[in-house]
Write a structure and sequence with these properties.
heterodimer, A: 107 residues, mainly beta, four-stranded antiparallel β-sheet, 11 strands, 0% helix, B: 123 residues, seven-stranded mixed β-sheet
């Protein structure tokens, strides 16, 4: 199994901050990576696919980067609606595994 | 815009079989799309369970394969998941989700997701 590790587990930030967090794979997954946002009591919602492509209707303040084994999700100017948990997910060769999540909380 | 809605018993006894339904609206399951079941444990870990295509093509997570039965009912536009011999470790929120890709099966992400249905395994 491909293992995904996210860091940090929790990130405290303020509205307007630029924040970046990381997802690492234990083997090369090229750019086969998605990012999801999950709010309490809701299903995960797709933000980014193929490591850097924005999902439909996703605000442009979200951006993804990286390839191979290290990936990032950046929020350029944190909005009140962005306080949530973010998960990465790899999809390399009929294998789908998720990171453990990064929770973004209000500082 | 396709929408997915899961439903299930809520509470299942250990060793019994869990049966879940995913109703798909706003689009037919009789398309090229694949559909997956994913669960989220109380500790928030997300785990892919299995996928199915309306043609019957399906596959499961090796860790669950022996206990998983999938089906797709095109007349009802529904997907179903049965998980046998459940234990407390199967307590989770169960989601159905559509695969999306521009590269083909195996190189795909999940979008959209249903709202999820909680399942507790307890006597």
């Amino acid at each position: 199994d491909i293992q995904m590790t996210q860091s940090p587990s929790t990130l405290s930030a303020s509205v307007g901050d630029r924040i970046t967090f990381t997802c690492r794979a234990n083997q090369n997954i090229n750019n086969w990576l998605a990012w999801y946002q999950q709010k309490p009591g809701k299903a995960p919602k797709l933000l980014i696919y193929d490591a850097s492509n924005l999902g439909r209707g996703v605000p442009s303040r979200f951006s993804g980067g990286g390839s191979g084994t290290e990936f990032t999700l950046t929020i350029s100017s944190l909005q009140p609606d962005d306080f949530a948990t973010y998960y990465c997910q790899q999809y390399d060769s009929y294998s789908w595994t998720f990171g453990q999540g990064t929770r973004v909380e209000i500082k | 815009q396709v929408q997915l809605q899961e439903s299930g018993p809520g509470l299942v006894k250990p060793s019994e079989t869990l049966s879940l339904i995913c109703d798909v609206s706003g689009g037919s399951i009789r398309t090229d799309y694949y559909w997956s079941w994913i669960r989220q444990t109380p500790g928030k870990t997300l785990e892919w369970i299995a996928y199915i295509h309306h043609s019957g093509d399906s596959n499961s997570n090796p860790s669950l394969k022996s206990r998983v039965t999938l089906s797709a009912d095109t007349s009802k536009n529904q997907l179903s998941l049965k998980l046998s011999a459940v234990t407390a470790a199967d307590t989770a929120i169960y989601y159905c989700a559509r695969h999306d890709t521009s590269h083909g099966l195996g190189k795909d992400w999940f979008d959209p997701w249903g709202q999820g249905t909680p399942v507790i395994v307890s006597s």
